[in-house]
C-alpha cells in the first residue's frame, strides 16, 4: 500500500513538473518553406510529398538532376493551390559555400526556411575488416557533414525568425552498433550527439530539433545497400525488426517534428531503443519520461536477450564460413 502511494505521488509530481515544461507548441507548415535534403528519393521524397499535402512550399536538394526533376514533377501533384516546389542540385557533403548558395537561392524563391529536414545520406554495410579506410570518411561526409553544411546554411534565417524546426535522420544504427555497421553507425551516432548540443542552443530561439531513428525502410537506398555486399549477419539481425514503408516513416518524422519532439522513432523496437538510449537527451514528452522512469531497468534486461540472439547469429555465420573454407592438407 505504502509502495503504491509513494509511486503515485512520484508520478503525480513528475507529471505536474513536466506537463508545463515539456509541451513544445505544435506548429503548422501551411504556407511555410520546408527544405528537404535527399528529397528526390526514399524517405526524403515521402517527406516532401507529405509537407506539400500540408500546404508547405517545398525545396528538395540532392545531386542527381534527373532524379530531382522527376521527384519535383511528382511532388507538384500534391501541392496545395498557390504553393510551389523548387529543386536544386548540390553535393551537400562538398564545399559549404556551394551549399549556402543553394539554400539562399531556395530562400529567394520560396521565402526563409522554416523547416529543414536532413534526409540526405547513404549507408555501407560490411565487416570492419572488409571496409576500406575511405568508407569511414565517406560515411561521415555523406551522413554527418552533409547535415552540418545544410543546417549551418539554413539556421541564420531561422534564428532571425525566432522559430523553426530542424530534423536529422539518424538510424536505429545510430542507437545500437550492429555487425556490419561500424562505418555507418559512427556517422549516425555522431549526428545524435551534435543534435543534442544543437537543441540546447536552439530552444531559446524557439527552434526545435528532432533526431529520427528510422528502422529498415523500403527505399532505393535500402535496396542498394542490400546489393552492395551486406553481410549475412547484418541481414539476419536486421530482419528481426521488419521492413517499414517510407510513407509511414515519413509521417511519423513529420508529425514528431511539428510537435517539437526531440526523439522520433517508429515501431515497437524503435520505442524500446529510444527509451533505452534516452540518456541525457532533451525531454519533450511527459509520457516518455514517465515510461523511461519505470521501464529502463526492465528494457535493459530484455535488450540483453536481443544481444545474445544477435551474438548467436554472428557465431553461427562464422561457423558456416569456416565450414566452407577449403581444408588445408
Ligand atoms: N532506408 C532505410 O532503411 C534507412 C534506415 C535508417 C536510416 N535511414 C536514413 O534515412 C535517410 C534517407 O534514406 P533513404 O533510404 O530514403 O535514402 P535514398 O533512397 O538512398 O535517398 C537518399 C537521398 O539523399 C540524396 N543524397 C545522398 N548523398 C547526397 C549528397 N552527398 N548530397 C546531396 N544529396 C545526397 C540522394 O540523391 P542523390 O544520390 O541524387 O544525391 C537521395 O535523394 C538517410 O540519411 C539514411 O541513412 C534510412
TrEMBL record:
Function: Catalyzes the reduction of 3'-oxosphinganine (3-ketodihydrosphingosine/KDS) to sphinganine (dihydrosphingosine/DHS), the second step of de novo sphingolipid biosynthesis.
InterPro entries in UniProt: KDSR-like, NAD(P)-bd_dom_sf, Sc_DH/Rdtase_CS, SDR_fam
Localisation per UniProt entry: Endoplasmic reticulum
Catalytic activity: sphinganine + NADP(+) = 3-oxosphinganine + NADPH + H(+)
GO molecular function, one term: nucleotide binding
Pfam family, one: adh_short
Taxonomy, superkingdom: Eukaryota
One annotated GO biological process: 3-keto-sphinganine metabolic process
A GO CC term assigned to this protein in UniProt: endoplasmic reticulum membrane
EC number: 1.1.1.102
Assigned keywords, A-Z: Endoplasmic reticulum, Lipid metabolism, NADP, Nucleotide-binding, Oxidoreductase, Sphingolipid metabolism
Protein name: 3-dehydrosphinganine reductase
The keyword Nucleotide-binding belongs to this UniProt entry's keyword annotation: yes
Chief place of localization: endoplasmic reticulum
Biological or metabolic pathway of the protein: Lipid metabolism; sphingolipid metabolism; Sphingolipid metabolism
SUPFAM superfamilies according to UniProt: NAD(P)-binding Rossmann-fold domains (SSF51735)
Similarity field: Belongs to the short-chain dehydrogenases/reductases (SDR) family.
Taxon lineage: Eukaryota, Metazoa, Spiralia, Lophotrochozoa, Mollusca
Amino acid at each position: 500500500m505504502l509502495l503504491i502511494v509513494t509511486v503515485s505521488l512520484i508520478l503525480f509530481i513528475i507529471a505536474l513538473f513536466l506537463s508545463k515544461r515539456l509541451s513544445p507548441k505544435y506548429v503548422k507548415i501551411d504556407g511555410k518553406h520546408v527544405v528537404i535534403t535527399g528529397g528526390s528519393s526514399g524517405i526524403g521524397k515521402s517527406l516532401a510529398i507529405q509537407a506539400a499535402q500540408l500546404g508547405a512550399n517545398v525545396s528538395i536538394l540532392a545531386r542527381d538532376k534527373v532524379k530531382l526533376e522527376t521527384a519535383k514533377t511528382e511532388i507538384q501533384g500534391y501541392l496545395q493551390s498557390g504553393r510551389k516546389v523548387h529543386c536544386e542540385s548540390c553535393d551537400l557533403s562538398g564545399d559549404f559555400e556551394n551549399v549556402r548558395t543553394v539554400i539562399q537561392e531556395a530562400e529567394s524563391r520560396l521565402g526563409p526556411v522554416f523547416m529543414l529536414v536532413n534526409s540526405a545520406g547513404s549507408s555501407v554495410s560490411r565487416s570492419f575488416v572488409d571496409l576500406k579506410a575511405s568508407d569511414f570518411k565517406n560515411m561521415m561526409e555523406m551522413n554527418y557533414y552533409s547535415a552540418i553544411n545544410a543546417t549551418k546554411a539554413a539556421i541564420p534565417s531561422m534564428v532571425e525568425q525566432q522559430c523553426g524546426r530542424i530534423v536529422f535522420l539518424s538510424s536505429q544504427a545510430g542507437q545500437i552498433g550492429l555487425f556490419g555497421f561500424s562505418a555507418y553507425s559512427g556517422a549516425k551516432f555522431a549526428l545524435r550527439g551534435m543534435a543534442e548540443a544543437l537543441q540546447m542552443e536552439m530552444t531559446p530561439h524557439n527552434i526545435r530539433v528532432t533526431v529520427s531513428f528510422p528502422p529498415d525502410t523500403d527505399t532505393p537506398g535500402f535496396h542498394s545497400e542490400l546489393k552492395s555486399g551486406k553481410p549475412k549477419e547484418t541481414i539476419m539481425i536486421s530482419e528481426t525488426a521488419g521492413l517499414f514503408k517510407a510513407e509511414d516513416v515519413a509521417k511519423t518524422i513529420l508529425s514528431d517534428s511539428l510537435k517539437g519532439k526531440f526523439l522520433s522513432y517508429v515501431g515497437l523496437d524503435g520505442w524500446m531503443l529510444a527509451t533505452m538510449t534516452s540518456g541525457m537527451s532533451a525531454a519533450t514528452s511527459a509520457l516518455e519520461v514517465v515510461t523511461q522512469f519505470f521501464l529502463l531497468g526492465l528494457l535493459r534486461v530484455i535488450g540483453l536477450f536481443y544481444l545474445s540472439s544477435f551474438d548467436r547469429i554472428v557465431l553461427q555465420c562464422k561457423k558456416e564460413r569456416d565450414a566452407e573454407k577449403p581444408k588445408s592438407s
